[in-house]
Write a structure and sequence with these properties.
The complex is a heterotrimer.
Chain A: E1 2-12, E2 15-26, E3 30-34, H1 41-49, E4 55-63, E5 66-67, H2 73-78, E6 81-84, E7 91-95, H3 96-106, H4 113-126, H5 131-135, E8 137-138, H6 144-158, E9 162-166, H7 174-191, E10 194-198, H8 203-207, E11 212-217, E12 220-225, H9 227-236
Parallel strand pairs in A: 3-10, 3-11, 6-9, 9-10
Antiparallel strand pairs in A: 1-2, 1-4, 4-5, 7-8, 11-12
Helix pairs in contact in A: 3-4, 3-6, 4-6, 6-7
Chain B: E1 2-9, E2 13-21, E3 27-36, E4 40-50, E5 56-65, E6 69-79, E7 86-96, E8 102-111, E9 116-125, H1 129-136, H2 142-158, H3 164-172
Parallel strand pairs in B: 1-3, 2-4, 3-5, 4-6, 5-7, 6-8, 7-9
Chain C: H1 18-21, E1 34-35, H2 42-51, H3 56-71, E2 93-94, H4 108-117, H5 119-126, E3 129-134, E4 137-143, H6 145-149, E5 153-156, H7 157-163, H8 165-171, H9 182-190, E6 195-199, E7 209-214, E8 221-222, E9 225-230, E10 235-243, E11 251-253, E12 256-261, E13 266-273, E14 279-289, E15 294-301, E16 306-309, E17 312-315, E18 321-330, E19 335-344, E20 350-359, E21 364-373, E22 381-390, E23 396-405, E24 411-419, H10 423-430, H11 436-452, H12 457-472
Parallel strand pairs in C: 3-7, 6-9, 7-10, 8-11, 9-12, 10-13, 11-14, 12-14, 13-15, 14-16, 14-17, 15-18, 16-19, 17-19, 18-20, 19-21, 20-22, 21-23, 22-24
Antiparallel strand pairs in C: 1-2, 3-4, 5-6
Helix pairs in contact in C: 2-3, 3-9, 7-8, 10-11
Classes of the chains: A alpha/beta, B alpha/beta, C alpha/beta.
Chain lengths: 242, 175, 476
């Protein structure tokens, strides 16, 4: 059981941004995707989720054997894919509870509003999210760190098969980082969620230890390895991958 | 390439400005200052008409009124049906410095395309008490405080004026 | 066309026509107790007053209004009134001889219609009283005994005039005078039905009082007149709903509502307007608010072909407060020209206007508002927020605010935004499993939320349902 990406080519407008990316994330596996700014990490994340601005010109995306190439974002979500976005957009007038209740019901789960409320409160406590934020419009006026934690809260409740975390560590202080990382690691170990963690920095990976590490360069995977790659990047930086 | 139009009203009267954005890619900014310190009617009317898409507009009006001045500002952003990809914001802020001054603010919108970002804001009132308190706590009161605040208020527009000749001309019109 | 859909999902069956989504489009075939001829004449006005056995002063008032009406021009702003066929309208239609006190007294056909609308159930479960108007007359009314015992008066306007003539004479036409506008003057000549409400000093009416207006005949004119007097320290919430059959020709609804909010009283007036798409809805609503009084208009405009309505507050006493929260949805062939008026006459008065409008399928939503702060209204504060969503390139949104400030020791803030449903927002919600349609509905709901949350749950549920039905009618 895996999220399989083969030879994925993506263009934005007239420009080719991904020139043939192949990777695999197995159930319960944590795969780190690193690379300098502009290497195409976020593009990959958004293209995998089906964002309309990104046109896939070649390759394939397969989730547990199901072809995702022509699926809409909601179909991909219902198939078990989750994306914690880099820049969570605000939805005025809609609270996180309303959004999650709708998401759960959209995939056929009959949950009561009360149940969802309790689950959210439990997760919020674990993630050290201020209860006040749960009542407000989703992401409206939230700090960067609060938005990221809210993404993780949603991931925990939706319990996806595969989760892509797009630069979730940016904007988080060390305490928040540890909480988020532990939360994600828990999902991988106990719920067998396959996690593709996209990050520019090495900090997060200290607490969310990857099984494999991939490094991107100019729209392709340039190198694959284990934890030793992270150590190497820490020492010499991204110069060779620019 | 952003074009800038500067309008300065320092005498009672009527000024009308029409900005026609009829070519894709056109960007225009209108900066208007109304310094109304004489009794009389000061009327400013601005129309920004987006006839085609991918056009950009910004209107910033700041006015101060006293001594029986009556200021009326009408600002309209119009976006035609085919004009998608438009970005426009109109702002008018009027300060009434004494109990003899009056203002009418009419920020209007007529939007027929939907792939647009259009908004406006208007405020009318007297000098903020908080600002006065702050300056008083630094030993600045009365006329001096008012002058500083009004200058600061108007400078937010003046600072954006690219043509330095016009900007310095404004500098010489002060209450 | 959706950017997210790869397969065209439309076929003849899934596209609902407008009349199909309107649940209440049926008509009742009944025998009217009395129908006036078409068109408006002085004789009709005199006859009408005579039939109602009105005091002389009211008949004279009506005739004076008729004379003024003929001389006054139509408003030169707003929607297209040239489409109204004034001579084809029935200005007075009496369905039954007398008002029923129980539902059993109401003819079957009419009662069934109201059961479909849900009035009897609501009355049993959650209302303090209910009045139901069918074409020109109030045909049923009730008031909980506990409220009647406290001195609360809730009658049809005709009954109110008959039973409380002095009170009516004192206030009738004082807030909306005969110099106001042509439609209000028309109402003053041919008014029939509407509510008369008096809340005694200090009495708080906990459950809402509801009025429901139903047009049944083709080319009908409905001209209800409502007068609400909330005495010092009292509190009341009045709700009105309306609907009409799906005829091809238009009806006219020109109502006048006058409200007096006395010192420290609080009145909320909620309207869920759901006229069929051929009704011309031209209404004058105004409240006079005295010292420390609070008036709140909640205006939901979903139906009608053209609505022109600007609920107003005259803030006459110190610290009086006025609010108008409005939602307007303009779909195919509709023009909602709505807004508010706040007039500050006294010091420390405050006002708030929140307007949320949605236009789709070629509809046009217009916000038209006025805030006037008079000299002497020191310390007055006003805030206006108008947000508009345009869902497609065929639709239109306008904002025409006028802010007249004659006093300097005040604060006025006004902001307006026009936008469409954001692609990033749609993507975000879809990436959490909602279909594009569900995501759009959720975003629209969130857009309306600041106003919706001020409406009592039952009515909010009904409004949400109507908004959803409207959204379903859109394609893509």
């Amino acid at each position: 059981m895996a999220l399989l990406v083969k030879g994925l080519k993506v263009k934005i407008g007239n420009k080719e941004v991904l020139g043939g990316v192949s990777l695999a994330v197995a159930s319960g596996e944590v795969v780190a995707l690193m690379g300098p700014n502009g290497s195409g990490k976020s593009t990959l994340a958004l293209a995998l989720m089906g964002h309309p601005s990104y046109e896939i010109t070649d390759g394939s995306v397969d989730l547990d054997g199901g072809d995702m190439m022509t699926a809409t974002p909601d179909e991909r979500s219902r198939a078990g894919l989750f994306l914690a976005v880099q820049y969570p957009v605000s939805i005025p007038g809609v609270s996180v509870r309303e959004a999650l209740l709708a998401s759960l019901r959209a995939r056929g789960e009959s949950v009561s509003a009360l149940e969802v409320k309790k689950r959210i409160e439990a997760e919020a406590a674990e993630l050290a999210i201020d209860e006040e934020l749960l009542k407000r419009s989703l992401n409206e006026g939230f700090s960067g760190g609060e938005k990221k934690k809210m993404e993780i809260l949603q991931m925990r409740i939706l319990a996806p098969k595969y989760a892509i975390l797009d630069e979730t560590d940016s904007g988080l202080d060390i305490d928040a980082l540890k909480i988020v990382a532990t939360g994600a690691a828990f999902m991988a170990k106990k719920k067998q969620t396959g996690i593709l963690v996209i990050t520019h920095y090495q900090r997060l990976l200290k607490y969310l230890k990857p099984d494999r590490v991939l490094v991107m360069k100019q729209g392709r995977i340039a190198k694959e390895g284990g934890l030793e790659l992270v150590v190497e990047l820490e020492k010499s930086g991204y110069k060779q991958y620019e | 390439m952003r074009k800038q139009e500067v309008v300065i009203m320092a005498e009672p009267g009527k000024k009308e400005l029409v900005v026609n954005l009829d070519k894709k890619g056109r960007e225009e900014e209108v900066l208007a200052l109304i310094i109304a310190d004489q009794p009389g009617d000061y009327y400013l009317k601005i129309l920004v008409d987006h006839k085609v898409g991918n056009t950009f507009g910004r209107v910033m009006v700041r006015g101060v009124a006293k001594n029986g001045a009556r200021v009326q500002v009408e600002g309209m952003i119009k976006i035609d049906k085919e004009a998608n990809g438009v970005d426009d914001f109109l702002e008018m802020r009027l300060l009434l410095l004494d109990d003899k001054s009056q203002a009418v603010a009419e920020p209007k919108l007529e939007i027929e395309a939907n792939e647009v970002k259009a908004s406006h804001a208007a405020t009318v009132g007297k000098i903020d008490e908080e600002q006065l308190f702050y300056l008083a706590s630094r030993g600045i009161t009365g006329k001096e405080a008012e002058r500083l605040i009004v200058d600061g208020f108007l400078n937010q527009v003046v600072d954006k004026i690219e043509d330095r000749k016009i900007a310095s001309k404004v500098g010489r019109i002060r209450l | 066309m959706s950017r997210f859909a790869k397969i065209v999902r439309l076929d003849q069956n899934t596209v609902k026509t407008l009349s199909e989504t309107y649940r209440l489009g049926h008509r009742d075939e009944i025998k009217y107790a009395y129908r006036s001829g078409r068109g408006l004449t002085e004789k009709l006005v005199t006859d009408l007053s005579a039939r109602k056995n009105e005091p002389l002063w009211m008949r004279e008032y009506r005739l004076k209004a008729f004379a003024v009406y003929n001389k006054m021009p139509l408003p030169n702003f707003g929607g297209d009134l040239s489409l109204i066929k004034w001579d084809e309208i029935f200005y007075y239609l009496k369905p039954i001889e007398k008002t029923g006190k129980t539902w059993k007294e109401v003819p079957d056909a009419i009662r069934k219609t109201f059961e479909k609308i849900g009035v009897p159930q609501a009355e049993r479960e959650m209302l303090g009283g209910a009045k139901v108007q069918y074409d020109s007359e109030v045909i049923y009314g009730s008031l909980r005994r506990s409220l009647a015992a406290k001195g609360v008066v809730f009658l049809g306007m005709d009954e109110g005039l008959a039973q409380y003539p002095e009170l009516v004479k004192q206030y009738f036409g004082t807030i909306v005078p005969l110099s106001d506008n042509k439609l209000a003057v028309l109402n003053s000549a041919v008014w029939s039905g509407g509510s008369f409400i008096y809340i005694p000093k200090g009495v708080e009416v906990g459950l809402p009082l509801q009025a429901y207006f139903r047009i049944n005949a083709e080319n009908a004119g409905q001209f209800e007149r409502t007068l609400i007097i909330a005495d010092e320290g009292s509190k009341v919430h009045y709700v009105e709903g309306c609907s009409a059959p799906a005829y091809s020709s238009g009806s006219l609804h020109a109502a006048v509502v006058e409200i007096i909010v006395k010192k420290g009283a609080r009145v909320q007036y909620t309207t869920v307007q759901n006229w069929y798409r051929n009704v011309f809805n031209l209404v004058t609503k105004r409240a006079w608010v005295e010292e420390e009084g609070e008036m709140r208009w909640i205006d939901g405009n979903l139906g009608s072909r053209l609505t022109m309505k600007y609920p107003a507050c005259i803030l006459a006493g110190r610290k009086a407060r006025g609010e108008t929260l409005s939602i307007a949805m303009a779909g195919e062939g509709q023009h909602q020209d709505a807004g508010a008026k706040m007039i500050h006459l006294a010091p420390e008065t405050t006002s708030q206007i929140i307007s949320k409008s949605i236009s789709k399928n070629g509809g046009r939503a217009t916000y038209r508002g006025m805030v006037k702060i008079n000299k002497g209204a020191k310390g007055a504060k006003s805030k206006v927020v108008c947000d508009a969503l345009i869902l497609d390139g065929a639709s239109r949104s306008d904002t025409y605010p006028t802010n007249i400030i004659l006093e300097n020791d005040v604060s006025l803030e006004h902001e307006a935004t026009v936008s469409k449903v954001g692609e990033e927002q749609l993507f975000y919600l879809m990436s959490r499993g909602l279909s594009e349609h569900e995501a759009e509905a959720m975003i629209v709901n969130g857009f309306l939320e600041p106003v919706m949350k001020q409406i009592p749950l039952e009515y909010a549920v009904e409004m949400n349902r109507l908004v959803e039905l409207e959204m379903e009618g859109s394609v893509g």
